[in-house]
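Thread: Newbie trying to understand structure tokens

Hi all, I'm a second-year student working on a class project, and my supervisor (Dr. K.) asked me to get a predicted structure for one chain before our next meeting. I've only ever worked with sequences, so writing a 3D structure as a token string is new to me. If someone could post the tokens and maybe explain what I'm looking at, I'd be very grateful. Here's the chain:
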Amino acid sequence: MSETSRATTLTRLAELDAEHAKAIAGGGPKYTERHRTRGKLLARERIELLLDPDTPFLELSPLAAYGSDYPVGASMVTGIGVIEGTECVITANDPTVRGGASNPWTLKKALRANEIAFANRLPLVNLVESGGADLPSQKEIFIPGGALFRDLTRLSAAGIPTVAVVFGNSTAGGAYVPGMSDHVIMVKERSKVFLGGPPLVKMATGEISDDESLGGADMHARTSGLADYFALDEPDALRLARRVVARLRWRKQGPAPAASYDPPFHDEDELLGIVPEELKTPFDPREVIARITDGSEFDEFKPLYGPSLATGWAQVHGYPVGILANAQGVLFSAESQKAAQFIQLANQRDIPLLFLHNTTGYMVGKEYEQAGIIKHGAMMINAVSNSRVPHISVLMGASYGAGHYGMCGRAFEPRFLFAWPSAKSAVMGPAQLAGVLSIVARQSAEARGQAYDEEADAALRAMVEQQIESESLPMFLSGRLYDDGVIDPRDTRTVLGLCLSAVHSAPVEGARGGFGIFRM
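---
Reply by user tm_fold:
Sure, no problem. This is what the structure looks like when written as tokens:
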């Protein structure tokens, strides 16, 4: 453990906390106070009343929209929480941010929540109060936004319950959220659900109407039948939502965790000092494993073969897992072949896989190309792609190049993917990428018979390194929803336990054959 690394991690965590605070603040004091004077609860207050007391809420994508022109958090809160003993995916519009209007990042965040609900067979509860699409950005929302309604119908068709609790506006396309949900709760004199509000109706038809007769909760409860439950106020609506979930009688289809298990024997606080400040410096991932697994136990598979990748069996909060953890960063042929075999074994035994990233990618060079690194790397990626057990990924350090793919990066659809503040992810390291561009530019100048401008080259390399460095940082990537959140390393075991519990709401079944052709 390094005190320098610990200090660096704590500094990064302070920066992370500052960005999380922006998301929690929503639209700021002015709009928060305006919302409260209307007798309304804030988005997170609604979630707190909805959840069982003293149960955790795993917030997802809290940094959505970070680094963009939109507020951090993307005017929506999403996560997994327990309602009447049932784990559910919960989404809540934040009406203090432009009336809860959806921008492009709101859409991405909502679609990711739907994806998690579908993949893990978790009931979906939407706490709705939104002015619809943020009109200036409608060109980026309207066409892909139809997927929100598609998802609601597909969840319902798959037998996964959907619940809409409408606290305020749910207009235009947003009216289809309650319209396509299995269970709908509306609040007296608060809910406003219509395809077109009074101004639009007047412009389109000449008809003059008011909000209540056009789309109020009373009308929908008595006349249209869109509302299944009529709540007197917001706490009553959340009480009704809890009763709806209780009546689902939801049962998990995956195996239950062990009845009892030991916590890790090593202090989780030490996770702060394990990843070196300079990611080129190797570290032993077994030090991480010993601080997240039950009893710090890890039965390693092929420990002497392909030692740059540690593979083995363990248990986290009573759930069995197979772990793949990068040890020295680079993946060679032996590591790739070991990983492919291990992934097949996990599928044969229906055991979820945990990928702990610290890789600079697959090894390059004449010797390794001639030895078949491409086909062996492809073998590992093939196994990851066609594995059917749940995958969870945690980016601890570097996650570069095709190594990011082989270790089940975002494109390979892990059920959940989180990053530590120490993580970095890109095509390659900043210095390497800048160097490649420099070499190519130099060769191009030589081919044209031109003198190479060394001063301009140095400036270009510095600019590119700075750009790639900033674009490979975890908060930047999390802002684009390339992960489900940047977490404190000390929370890793808790987060993994919540994720493993969630994935076991669905059956846990591995692939029986069905892998692509392995190039031997």
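A couple of things are worth pointing out once you decode it. The CA atoms of residues 442 and 448 lie 10 Å apart. The chain has 19 helices and 17 strands. Feel free to ask follow-ups in this thread.
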